[in-house]
User: Which sequence fits this backbone?
């Protein structure tokens, strides 16, 4: 038995979890093939299934945020121009 703890890359975790989701092989078979404990594969599989909807939610939120961001940047530009214009007007009076 291995006493050292190994860190797996996110891409490796995704590959194993997706293989478990496909269910072409059983989790014990995947465990043997990848050298990972079956409980770890079950955990990664459940994480993938729980967070799958989040991937699509982010795309919707990102497009809404982009529109809002463009609107705010436009407003900032307008206010900057207005401030500079008024600042120049005050300098002339002094």
Assistant:
């Amino acid at each position: 038995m291995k006493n050292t703890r190994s860190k797996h890359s996110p891409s490796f975790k995704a590959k194993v979890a997706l293989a478990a989701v496909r269910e072409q092989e059983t989790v014990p078979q995947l465990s043997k093939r990848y050298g990972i404990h079956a409980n770890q594969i079950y955990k990664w599989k459940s994480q993938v299934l729980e967070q799958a909807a989040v991937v699509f939610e982010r795309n919707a939120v990102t497009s809404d945020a982009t529109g809002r961001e463009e609107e705010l940047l436009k407003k900032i530009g307008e206010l900057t121009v207005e401030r500079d214009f008024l600042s120049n007007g005050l300098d002339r009076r002094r």
